[in-house]
Amino acid sequence: KQWYQRRVAITAGMAMNKFSSADDIRTFIEEQLTEGRKSDASAAAKQAGILAQGWCDSGCTSTTARFLEGIFGHMNGGGCNDASVFCGECQSRAASYFARNQLPCCVEKVVRKGIEAYDYVIANYSDALESYGAAVKGGLSVSGLAEAEAIRDRVVEEFSCVSEVYSANRPECV
Fold it and tell me: Are 120 and 44 spatial neighbours (Cβ–Cβ below 8 Å)?
């Protein structure tokens, strides 16, 4: 919880330094929206709508709810009730649940689409993202930067553990 509160405080502080009004925020967003980005965002929204409709049509909500209830119940039984801590015992408990229960294929489809979208953004916007990162980095104090980097490192570590469990237990879906 403290980690999350610090992250929110850092983000809010950066926003307060850069933006002093709603017009500042609107102007910043409009400056970033090239025609290519608008087109990509429109295509992404269309694909998200198609994916959501397929989710509903296939009854995925109920299937996913049962799966999530099972895995979270299993993990909570081992004291894993803090979503910001996954590596270690919680990772082991999740892996043991996956050994007996397959991730629903409708969830796998959404995960795969998310990975494809991430890969697309990296391939097409990595230069812009690096530029934004440098601008944010330049606006932070030495202690703020150190804290932001520590948060980044922790998120990367935890995500790596989640990814390891997912990769080892990907369902074979048609």
Answer: no
In whole angstroms, give the CA distance from residue 165 to residue 158: 11
Q: Would you tell me the crossing angle of helices 105-138 and 35-57 to the nearest 10 degrees?
A: 150
Q: State phi, psi for 78 to the nearest 5 degrees.
A: -100, 10
Name the strand (E) or helix (H) holding 49. Answer: helix 35-57
Closest CA to 17 of 172, 120, 100, 141: 141
Mean pLDDT of the chain: 84
Question: Which tokens hold the place of 63?
Answer: 């299937």
Contact 70, 97 (CB under 8 A): yes
pLDDT tens track for 81-128: 888 899 999 999 999 999 999 999 999 999 999 899 889 888 888 888
